[in-house]
Amino acid sequence: MKEMNCNIANDLIPLYVDNVLSEDSKELLENHISDCVHCKEILERMQSHIVIAEDKDIKPFKRIRKKLLIRMIIIVFLLIVIAAGYFACQLAEIPVSYVGDDLMKDMEVVCMEDGIYLRRENLSARGDIVIVDDSEGVLKFYIGENVPDHFRLEWWEKTCYTMLAENATHRGENEITEVHYCDKDGNILYTLWEKGE
Fold first, then answer.
1. How confident is the model at residue 77, as a pLDDT?
2. Smaller CB count within 10 Å for the chain: N or C?
3. Among 48, 144, 45, 136, which Cα is nearest to 94's?
4. Could you say which residues of the chain have pLDDT below 50?
5. From CA 70, how far away is CA 140, in angstroms rounded?
6. In terms of C-beta distances under 8 Å and separation of at least 24 residues, what long-range contacts does 143-148 make, across chains too?
7. CB atoms < 10 A from the CB of 107, how many?
């Protein structure tokens, strides 16, 4: 078997550490290192340097990956909370618990050929229409506080028309001549429409 000198061994040590030497060259270098203390120290330093370098390189990536994973979990959690809040608002009943200028400003009675309609805008006029009385030509209604909310303005809608009385202006004796907003007991709070207008 050939003897290897230290210069050739020093050239082969990096290839040995990277595990790219042929079996014959590997065997020659291992035989030389077993006899040469100087080359053995070079190999050990090179191997320890590479192991340390790998540890230093891997740990920051593990920390970064952990931080990214935590941030992704937080983002997903926040998106779920936002989506749940949005759907809860869409399904929740928003009762009309007040009567005032904002409510009256957002409502108007409109007569059309097929009946009388209530035009509503914005959220202050949300809620179901509850007819209290429609006899003697007077229609009284209020917006229900404890009934499911079928009047929903979606983000693209600005106005909603709800029929109060069908063919109300062509009924003969029972023709509607006045429309009033009232409380639950039928007490008139606002007059929204009179036929003479």
1. 96
2. N
3. 144
4. 51-54, 93-95, 97, 146-149
5. 58
6. 143/96, 143/103, 144/95, 144/96, 145/95, 145/96, 145/97, 146/93, 146/95, 147/93, 148/93
7. 19
In this structure, what token pair is assigned to residue 166?
């069908």
Distance between CA atoms of 164 and 111, rounded to whole angstroms?
10
What confidence score (pLDDT) does residue 75 get?
95
Neighbours of 140 (CB within 10 A): 20
Task: Give per-residue burial for 168-178: e unless 16+ CB within 10 Å, then b.
Answer: beeeeeeebeb
At a CB cut-off of 8 Å and minimum separation 6, what does 137 contact? 174, 175, 176, 177, 178
Which amino acid makes up residue 56?
K
Distance CA 128, CA 134 (A): 17
The model carries a pTM of 0.44
Q: Are 141 and 132 in contact (CB under 8 A)?
A: yes
